[in-house]
Amino acid sequence: MRIQIITLFPEMFSGVLGSSMLWKAADRGIVSYEFINLRDFGLGPRQQVDDTPYGGGDGMLLKPEPVVAAIEHAKERNPEAIVLLPTPRGKVYKQSDAKRLAATEQDLILVCPRYEGYDERITNWVDEQFCIGNYVLTGGELPAMIVIDSVVRLLPGVLGGETSVEVESFQDDDVSIEYPQYTRPEDFRGMNVPEVLLNGHHGEIAKWRREQ
Ligand code: ADE
Fold first, then answer.
1. How many whole angstroms separate alpha carbon 79 and alpha carbon 8?
2. DSSP run (H or E) holding 51
3. Is the separation of the CB atoms in 60 and 52 below 8 Å?
4. If you ran DSSP here, which 8-state letter would residue 7 be given?
5. Which residues line the pocket of ligand 1, CB cutoff 6 A?
6. Predicted TM-score (pTM) of this structure
7. pLDDT tens digits along 127-173
8. Which domains does the chain have, with CATH numbers?
């Protein structure tokens, strides 16, 4: 899966994409991350990407020309890729979306807005708008990283055991269905591991986990 990221702050991604499973997935050739700096598509000698809102109001908005030029650039390199836009006004992003995006294995283009928002006309170049929760962030980079993390871990060959993907929380967008887990020591500061997990009876363990 090829993931192109349009952002003014590519450096924000290095810790997340350069560590642990997301790094390993790239190292194994399962995914590639490519950055497109929105500033490169800015207008005029100062490579302007933002402007004041028509009708007044606080803050600056991303201008449509640089954003659309950056999307078109990404699309030229990868015409079939799905264009995703993080925005508090989008539909809430769920595990079923991660599963769908991982299952299609279609390449992705993530557009990361900044400032107080963007000119609404850019949404004509976007396939899906999504919100990661009912709070407002300073930009689309963190939501983009959340989508990348949740999709890449589901790609074949990224996680070790397939069961860790199958038996996990939020499987059906419902409440958490993952059971509590324990490792050594058996007694930690007087708190003991549930007896049922220690007796090696697989039927009883499975029943207990279902109940939990
Ligand atoms: N941009 C700012 N806040 C956001 C949120 N909660 N979800 C997606 N994009 C955002």
1. 22
2. strand 50-51
3. yes
4. E
5. 86-88, 131-133, 135-137, 140, 143
6. 0.92
7. 999 999 999 999 999 999 999 999 999 999 999 755 556 556 555 57
8. 2-152 (3.40.1280.10), 179-212 (1.10.1270.20)
